[in-house]
């Protein structure tokens, strides 16, 4: 019997973030399976070895997987793998790596970021060109990589054609492509495509693959898709503090997610809950759904005082203080009843 005490109500859920959710029961089962006995540490264990095959099935035979603990860590490792000391990466201004990682890429990776204003969280070849210049000019950090987020921080998705066009454009200019896939599964579910179809086949060089937001716990991975163009990243992972010693527990979670279809079941469900929420909320007078719902997030504009009252019952974040735009995130464990209760409360508060 544990001495730990349950300190929260496991029946209470909100819409603040998909990482407020717990761990999927099948993943907890996998963790128990990997427990007991001794296994070698730092990634030479049997679970991590088996993971190579699991990722190869999704991302192609040449894919190489490096489990890490956080999405920020995955981004920092992946971007360093693409860039020399004088290199820079072009991102949307809203990209997590630019806006929400406390300068980790700059501080830990020594990377220069060139952010470009993007209305919907997406880059286009034209937007990339705003920063893709100054090659050979000694005074300018050299733009040698582009980083996309899929699905984006605004809940939007790139189509496969859009990703391919960006990859072709970047490669034509001698740049490599990183894809921040903290919610890659949600994008694949939305597009009705495989994980490899929207990355490897479209020309992406390296992926930060997200597990935590899709039912895992501290389990993400760097996935190298073009190993012939990317140097050995083993040392980068350790020097960036992302080499987990008991790696079998990270790897077994990723296996539980990807060996079968848990990744897709969870993502389809979270996306469906977001659609249910947006559809119902859009019918309420005074509430405006601000962006296309293409993954598991809903962005809405409503009076700030209503948002204030509502979040006392259902936590969620304000996305933009200046416009009153809020973000409602759904997770693998969001239930239709959660959504309906939230919409009912929203309706009541709008009338109050
Ligand atoms: C798009 C995106 N990338 C990366 C991260 C970073 O993940 P972590 O919080 O595990 O460092 C997040 C987390 O919110 C995210 O939304």
SSE topology string: HHEHEHHEHEHEHEEHHHEEHEEH
> Might you state the CATH topology name of the largest domain?
Aspartate Aminotransferase, domain 2
The main β sheet shows up as: 7 strands, mixed
Side-by-side strand order of the widest sheet: 1-7-6-5-4-2-3
Oligomeric state of the chains in view: single chain
Total separate domains:
2
Helix count?
13
Mean pLDDT: 97
Shape: globular
Query: Mind telling me which CATH architecture of the largest domain this is?
Result: 3-Layer(aba) Sandwich
- Rounded to an integer in angstroms, the radius of gyration calculated over CA atoms is 20 Å
CATH class category name of the largest domain: Alpha Beta
Characterization of this structure:
37% of the residues lie in helices and 16% in strands. The protein is an alpha/beta fold and 352 residues long. The protein has two domains: 25-258, Type I PLP-dependent aspartate aminotransferase-like (Major domain) (Aspartate Aminotransferase, domain 2, 3-Layer(aba) Sandwich), CATH 3.40.640.10; 262-351, Aspartate Aminotransferase, domain 1 (Alpha-Beta Complex), CATH 3.90.1150.10. The chain has a seven-stranded mixed β-sheet with strand order 1-7-6-5-4-2-3, sandwiched between helices. Strands 8-9-11-10 form a four-stranded antiparallel β-sheet. It is globular and about 60 Å long. It starts with 24 loop residues before the first helix and ends with a helix. Residues 70-72, 75, 96, 149, 153, 180, 182, 212 line the site of pyridoxal-5'-phosphate.
Which SSEs are present, and which pair or pack?
Blueprint: H1 25-34, H2 46-59, E1 64-68, H3 71-82, E2 87-92, H4 96-99, H5 104-107, E3 112-116, H6 125-129, E4 142-149, H7 160-172, E5 176-181, H8 184-191, E6 206-210, E7 220-224, H9 234-239, H10 248-258, H11 262-282, E8 288-289, E9 297-301, H12 304-310, E10 317-320, E11 325-329, H13 336-351
Parallel strand pairs: 2-3, 2-4, 4-5, 5-6
Antiparallel strand pairs: 1-7, 6-7, 8-9, 9-11, 10-11
Helix pairs in contact: 1-10, 2-10, 8-11, 11-13, 12-13
Pyridoxal-5'-phosphate is lined by residues 70-72, 75, 96, 149, 153, 180, 182, 212.
